[in-house]
Amino acid sequence: MIYTSHGFYFHEGSGRKSWVLYYSIEKFMSLFSDAIITINEEDFKNAKKMFCKKVYHINGVGFDASKYRDVIVNKNEYRQVLGVPPDALMILAVGELSDRKNHQVIIKAMAKANIPNSVFAICGKAIQGEGTYDKLVNLANEHGVNIAFLGHRHDIPQVCHCADIGVLPSTREGLGIASLEMMASGLPLVTSNVHGIKDYMTDGVTGYMVSPYDVDGFAEALKKLSDSEVREKMRPNCIKVVENFDNSVSNKQMSDIYHEVLG
Q1: In terms of domains, do 31 and 146 share one?
Q2: Which of 45, 129, 131, 245 has a 20 to 30 A CA-CA distance from 33?
Q3: Where in the sequence is the domain holding 211, given as residue range(s)?
Q4: CA distances from 98 to 29, 125, 192, 217, 226 (A)
Q5: CA–CA dist 123, 248 (Å, integer)
């Protein structure tokens, strides 16, 4: 029994309830695992406190970095298809519309930063029952923020190359493949400083990290990245970092672990 966790529900910054409930369940179930594989450093350290004797860490489940890095697209023409003005500062989030993704903090931050001609584009569907779409629409209208819902898409690499800044303000992430995809496209990020995100983000090098509910912090970070020269300096750093999370790396790590556990 080899258990690969894509992110524990308990982590630094999560509430006591998460630790009491989810940590207790995970620790008990670790009795039945021959090996546990984690995809971020924080989970790796926490898993080592459980009953299972063999605990491993890999660089995520992997993704094809070249698919995002090597895209050639006419930015202005593609933006026209997306309904985004060619001269706008396009701030991009990729992921489902849910409370966990915390899109609302970006809307509030954009209002506070007051960056002229900026648009918040979100790729993803709403989680049923959460009512997140309506909440975001109302919040954007209230704060006068231009928001574009691009829906579930199959052209994320092209969309990434049309954007200027990537954001991932989640309250919890096992790793955050969407942000790695944006980085592979050369986008500097503004992210929350939680869980797996901290494994690849370096503040001031690949973007900026902020506490998930710090509206002022997100606003300041967006202001800094509204400068095209700052973004251009970070671009090669972003592309370089994600090489460690490519399929070729993760697949080898996983293969080595299975061969070791199986003897």
Answers
A1: no
A2: 245
A3: 65-244
A4: 28, 9, 15, 21, 26
A5: 27
pLDDT for 254: 96
pTM to 2 decimal places: 0.93
Which amino acid appears at position 155 of this protein?
D
The CB density around residue 214, as the number of other CB atoms within 10 Å, is 16
Residue 242 reports pLDDT greater than 80 = yes
135 shares its domain with 18:
no
- 132, 135, 138, 144: CA torsion to nearest 10: -80
CA pair distance 156, 159, nearest whole angstrom: 5
Phi-psi region of 206 (alpha: psi -120 to 50; beta: other; left: phi over 0): alpha
Burial class (CB in 10 A: 0-12, 13-18, 19+), 94: buried
Cα end-to-end distance, the chain, whole Å: 14
Write out 152-194 in H/E/C secondary structure: CCCCHHHHHHHCCEEEECCCCCCCCHHHHHHHHCCCCEEEECC
Residue 173 confidence (pLDDT): 92
